[in-house]
Here is the input.
Amino acid sequence: MVIRVNRKRGIFQFHSQIPGARVRREFLLACAHDAARRFRRRPGHLNFILINDREMARLHRTYMNIAGTTDVLTFDLSENTKSPVEGDVYICLDQARRQAEYYRVPLYLEIARLAVHGVLHLAGWEDRTDVEKRRMRSLEDRTLEVVRKLHGR
Here is the structure.
């Protein structure tokens, strides 16, 4: 699925490597677009790729040198700091399911949160310290709330 709004808002695409996965793509992409307002540069092409535990663990080991799965991995593919923001955001469906159950939220909302989290990383936000984690979580919450109100969810 491709959503092309205009040149200022970039091209955001959703891909699933999991056959039959049911995801509210429009909501996920709307949340990602809202989060992209925090970019200092204009957005270019952003991909959101839904994968399983096995593939996420492989990526996590290959690129982060960490064993096991994680919920989201973000790769900044921008050419330089002046070019449009380009990136891939990998979201692990299996981990999103576990987190949705743990936090008692709908799966579509947890997947959208992970997409927003990836976009915030592309915007330069970090979550290494407790303060940074709280700040990022607050931005995620605000983004999801704004889009939920717009979409009536």
